[in-house]
Design brief:
about 55 residues; 3 helices
Length: about 55
């Protein structure tokens, strides 16, 4: 019985350590993106965009 080609763990021969490293780096990148987004929109009023504020001013 052969493994499917689409099974990335078999096709790319990734070890547990490598998968854990990739997973950790992905989580770190996502956390950084979320922190940037939170800082960007921190003082915004919910439901209003920056363009609406700029147009009103």
């Amino acid at each position: 019985m052969t493994h499917r080609i689409g099974n990335k763990d078999i096709a790319q021969m990734r070890g547990k350590e490598e998968k854990a490293r990739v997973r950790a780096s992905n989580k770190a990148m996502e956390a950084e993106k979320q922190a940037i987004a939170r800082a960007k929109y921190r003082n915004e009023i919910k439901g209003q965009s920056r363009r609406a504020e700029a147009a009103a001013a």
